[in-house]
Write a structure and sequence with these properties.
Layout (H helix, E strand, L loop, with lengths): L3 H22 L6 E12 L2 E11 L4 E10 L9
Antiparallel strand pairs: 1-2, 2-3
């Protein structure tokens, strides 16, 4: 098992790298429409949306989906 401090550092570096890669390389946009928004929350700068009967444009339809979104701006990232 790796030490907790090392695990946290690895996750932090991974988060920074994936955010940078998505910002630079991902050009796709996804559109969705839900029949029902069951709940939404904002806590510690994290949004969570719980929706039912969601249609994704040109993609798939799912019965239920949960989104969690965090502010990935550089001003919040600390090392």
């Amino acid at each position: 098992m790796i030490p907790q401090q090392l695990a946290e550092k690895v996750l932090f570096i991974y988060d920074k790298a994936i955010n940078k890669a998505l910002a630079q390389k991902a050009k796709n946009k996804m559109y969705f429409k839900a029949e029902k928004l069951r709940a939404y929350r904002h806590c510690d700068n994290v949004w969570t949306f719980l929706m039912e009967r969601v249609d994704f444009r040109d993609s798939i339809r799912v019965n239920r989906v949960k989104f969690v979104a965090c502010d990935g701006s550089a001003k919040l990232a600390t090392s």
